[in-house]
Amino acid sequence: MSKIQIYDTTLRDGTQAEDVHLSTEDKVRIARKLDTLGIDYIEGGWPGSNPTDQRFFQEIQNYALNHSRVVSFGSTHSTKKTPENDPNLDALIKSRTKAITIFGKTWDVHVKDALRTTQERNLEIIYNSVGFLRPRVEELFFDAEHFFDGFKANKEFALACLGRAMEGGADILVLCDTNGGTTPMELCRIIQEVQASLPEARLGIHAHNDSETAVANSLLAVDLGAVQVQGTINGYGERCGNANLCSIIPSLELKMGYTCLPENNLSLLTSTSHFVAEVANIGAFHRQPFVGKSAFAHKGGVHVSAVRKNPRTYEHIVPEEVGNKQRILLSDLAGQSNILFKARQYGFQLDKDDPFVLDLLSKLKDLESQGYEYAVAEASFELLLNRTLGRARKYFTLDSYRVLESKSDKKDQPFSEATVMVRVGGLQEHTAATGKGPVNALDSALRKALEKFYPTLAEMHLVDFKVRVFAINDSGTYSGTASRVRVLIESADHNAQWVTVGVSFNIIEASRQALEDSLNYKLFKDDQAKLTKAIKEAEQV
Amino acid sequence: MSKIQIYDTTLRDGTQAEDVHLSTEDKVRIARKLDTLGIDYIEGGWPGSNPTDQRFFQEIQNYALNHSRVVSFGSTHSTKKTPENDPNLDALIKSRTKAITIFGKTWDVHVKDALRTTQERNLEIIYNSVGFLRPRVEELFFDAEHFFDGFKANKEFALACLGRAMEGGADILVLCDTNGGTTPMELCRIIQEVQASLPEARLGIHAHNDSETAVANSLLAVDLGAVQVQGTINGYGERCGNANLCSIIPSLELKMGYTCLPENNLSLLTSTSHFVAEVANIGAFHRQPFVGKSAFAHKGGVHVSAVRKNPRTYEHIVPEEVGNKQRILLSDLAGQSNILFKARQYGFQLDKDDPFVLDLLSKLKDLESQGYEYAVAEASFELLLNRTLGRARKYFTLDSYRVLESKSDKKDQPFSEATVMVRVGGLQEHTAATGKGPVNALDSALRKALEKFYPTLAEMHLVDFKVRVFAINDSGTYSGTASRVRVLIESADHNAQWVTVGVSFNIIEASRQALEDSLNYKLFKDDQAKLTKAIKEAEQV
């Protein structure tokens, strides 16, 4: 089976989307997830253009990726510079990636209006830039910006740009439909003409979705011989987005017989899609093909009964192949086998008829229907599992709390104060603290009360705090400030990081749940470590 | 220019979507809007299957449609009946539409497993059903269910089904990709084989989006000679949806040279899309091609300056052709020329050396460095602009507020109460309200205090509430629950939607800012509308 290179640009083109903003840490988390999925190339950013992207390339060097190559992206050198003194090319080299993508103009209009130079000079710039980078990097891709529009405007010039990039030593010529306006018919015709003119060229495709044909255009390009597909997770990208890798990869693998990901990794697709949406803090698009919540959801009576007899009657693929699942609406089951699998990860060998499993299953179903998201908040899930199995101590009880927010025009900043009443064993502690905002005040008061009993809590700190507001019901209707709120809190101590979750109509209450879980998890984890150490010592005796 | 028939099935297939529920009244409203747009055929429902659909066909007869033909949809007769005594065919005739679409099985597996009959009997049922309806209706379409899957499984049988429908007198044979799994390459190959086998047939295409290729598949079918395209507004439909007419129509008209809608009607597309989303009560998909809010939004600095010089550089069509518009997003870099451009949109002709511009620029830089995101919150920006220019009234002053959150173990839900003290002119109002959570309580108290003075505030409601927690500084380090919080609030009244922003260390305070902006914007907008009306009336005198 022929291998197609998958090139992800979520961290670069994806961040051009109107509502996507990623910090350096977000980018690192996504890159590591894409590495686990087995994406071949991860375009990390444009180091010559902004400091966030430069920091990413430094930061990512602290992680050993198993599969992916990180790629830095930049433009051909400035018309007024040479490759040797161009700061943009210099930034590419300083990013120390093994692969570089360099983009150049191929549309005559842009050369004239944007670069304000001649066609000859543009060809020279392409050749010089590619040639300069060639000996300095293992893999080098040339991104032909606006190629399809350029071809339609001035075929000879567009082809000449590709030719010069090849002569300079580019490994792959990536044909970009930058404006996303190319129809499938035009795209096929143009690719065939490129192939006739440059039969030795290895081609890539980079499509945008302005005509809602980016996925089809990418598949057609591969069918005609392209060896690399560029796109983003969930199709995030400027305007209408980039070609959606979550749709392209499964069609290439399941329908067209190509290999994209390492063996057995396709089933990670749905969880990867959700992870990226969570980190980008964008609501999942339920109708999204392959990985969306509705992608294999059956509503109509005829369909439901047919699908139960034979899923193929109304499902184009087996949902599990991409890590998704069939949903018969109104009976959404949190899978029993999922629980067994997870429990095994935490060291419990359970039987599927174990009453604990059935208990946990019913608890989980109830909690997930309320909006708890355990796929992300694994620490909360681990606590739930251990509590259900009776293996987690009750470290403390929060009997009551109160948060007071006030602001008058005399003071610029509002005043936040929290009081808590906690019980540890038979001892009660009633205390108060102020903070920057109500959640911070509650956090401070809780720690103040508990550190007396559990000094190790001083080792932990909060790393991230995420809030997601979502519809109360499944009908997609929001109810404004009375919507349900999910809070995810990421905490860390010197040797671990963990995420906990809370859900409520009330953001303070949701935060309280996630904070309590976070403190409990720290104490639970410390106990587990002590236990492991004790067992090891006993064995050595 | 060749005419392509546009066939809308939003009212039938569209309602199979997980979150779409339409009453008879909703369906009538949508049908009339589609008529205004100039859709050729409006499939109203399956009268044989449910009473809502039957009522629709009665109700719609009370309206004279200018352009559209209403179509009723149903299956071939039951295996145990004849056309004459089949209640489903009878319901089709009783719907009294001038056009009927009848669907039949063309996949051998379905004939065996679902109909539990022989292939010969199925061919007979198709011929008899079509033949029975032929003299009773003006136009008759045969919907070949699962045609592409059927063709791949048993080509001879699938083609025989089409042949019998033609012999029975069907005007158009609609090839359905019911499961949405057909790749563009397969689709083209199969259509060409159908044409070779049935050269006289007039073909239609009905695609589903499970592979994210429904739009491309529809365009390719037309390119090969299909004369009718079936789809839905916004692509609503079961699982991943149907082929999206909002993307197909503009590509056919603007790129492929076909006629679909009556002259000059294409510019109604964006408003039609929004109308249907409103009636279906589904949040607009901002990244939707052609008609989405982000479809012509430009963020990156390079793109913005290029687009200003020549929009074609990053826009595949002129947005106004489909009734949409270009949006220049105010991204992190608040440049002087960006502000001038935005100000012009709001009706201000400013000079770049105007002290107001310099003042606004410094304010914006400061606010954006704090985390205010005006690219999204355009209403807040418009208020800021007008305030800086001294053109927005101070509608009210919030002198002070207090929010109290409390929870004891006795009660399951926490209690939220807000008090506010507002001043309008010389009058002060001091009131209190409870709510589901602190922000909801504050919202309720504010409205309670202000509606006395401004009754139109009762027209507005909150549509969406988004929270983003982010690092205080650019170093990428979070500081947990003391992180900065950005709240975006989307509000709406009967004729507009607007987004406002608030930023603070404190989520309540950030929400307060966004809520205040939202209320102010409503009042400001109402004043502007009154002013415009007054000027128009004065001009008429």
Which strand order does the major sheet of chain A show?
1-2-3-4-5-6-7-8
Give me the CATH superfamily of the largest domain in chain A: Aldolase class I
Structural class by secondary-structure content of chain A: alpha/beta
Which protein chains make the most extensive interface, counting residues with beta carbons within 8 Å of the other chain's beta carbons?
A-B, 125 and 121 residues
**Overall shape of chain A:** globular
The largest β sheet of chain A comes out as: 8 strands, parallel, barrel
Cα end-to-end separation of chain A: 55 Å
Number of domains of chain A: 4
**Radius of gyration of chain A in whole Å, from Cα?**
27 Å
Helix content of chain A: 25-40%
Roughly what fraction of the amino acids of chain A lie in strands?
Answer: 15-25%
CATH class of the largest domain in chain A: Alpha Beta
Uncertain stretches of chain A: 330-334, 472-479
CATH architecture of the largest domain in chain A: Alpha-Beta Barrel
Q: How would you describe this structure to a colleague?
A:
The structure is a homodimer of 541-residue chains. Chain A is α/β, with parallel strands linked by helices and 541 residues long. In chain A, 40% of the residues lie in helices and 20% in strands. In chain A, helix 8 links the parallel strand 6 and strand 7. In chain A, helix 1 packs across helix 2, helix 5 runs parallel beside helix 7 and helix 6 packs across helix 7. The radius of gyration of chain A is 27 Å and the shape is globular. The termini of chain A are far apart. Chains A and B meet through helix 2, helix 4, helix 9, helix 10 and strand 9 of A and helix 4, helix 9, helix 10, strand 9 and helix 12 of B. Chains A, B: This is Citramalate synthase. Chains A, B: Keywords: Amino-acid biosynthesis, Branched-chain amino acid biosynthesis, Isoleucine biosynthesis, Transferase. Chains A, B: Belongs to the alpha-IPM synthase/homocitrate synthase family.
